[in-house]
Hints:
By secondary structure, the chain is of the alpha+beta class.
Amino acid sequence: SRIHAIDPTIERSDKKVEEIIEELKLREMSGYQFEGADGSFDLIIRRKLGLMPTFFHLDYFKILGEQPMLSSEYPSSAVMKVRVGSETEITAAEGNGPVNALDLALRKALMRFYPKLSEMRLTDFKVRVLESDATTAATVRVLIESSDGRNRWSTIGVSPDVIGASFIALRDSVEYKLMLDDLAKK
Length: 186
């Protein structure tokens, strides 16, 4: 199993295994699908096992969009504030859409702490609107595929809005890259 691959010493009867399975079930009920999101799946396991360092905290982000698009090459901007340890970084980036701007701003904010993030690229981005009924709002599922030239991974985000779902998947993607680099050092 994936849990055993991450921690070969864990026993099936361990309470943490039950907690991981419960977390995965809860997420799947809210729209997550882990078949194509190996990165997010591994991060959940690592977090529950206490094997995932806290690389950064997001204080906030803001998205600005230019409508109608005048002749701007970059119609969206993102402003972001993150903390790494006791240090704070506030940055902004322009992109060809809100998700591109968010991706660029997040990596730019973290670059001085984690220079290897410059190797990372988003290679695919998929959005799916999940069915809703008359009493509930639609939910959006975003799947992001990323690469650093050596590794490829996929992450997922689910939220009532596309920006929220995108940021969850982006954050997981960046954290997965940082986790890979951290493991490579050990």
